[in-house]
Specification:
By secondary structure, the protein is of the alpha+beta class. Helix content is about 35%, strand content about 45%. The protein has a four-stranded mixed β-sheet with strand order 1-2-4-3.
């Protein structure tokens, strides 16, 4: 499954285009965000990508950033 990492500085329109493209190609994508700002941008991007009929499952993921373990929100999105 392809993973798209979103930051608080990510453009929701660009992320939405990436989500739609991966969904069309692979039928499933995982969107990861660490922090409130990144989660906000990720949710906005999913709302914009609604031209593709999506179902999203929220979950947590433990990831390593600069040798430090952090908790990320992962949104597993698939075509309905």
């Amino acid at each position: 499954m392809e993973i798209l990492k979103v930051s608080s500085h990510s453009s929701p329109n660009s992320v939405a285009g990436a989500i739609a493209g991966v969904i069309r190609e692979k039928k499933m994508v995982e969107v990861q965000a660490v922090g409130a700002g990144a989660a906000n941008q990720a949710v906005k991007a999913i709302a914009i990508a609604r031209g593709v009929d999506l179902v999203c499952i929220p979950a947590f993921a433990n990831i390593l950033i600069d040798g430090e373990e952090r908790t990320a929100i992962k949104l597993i999105c698939e075509e309905r």
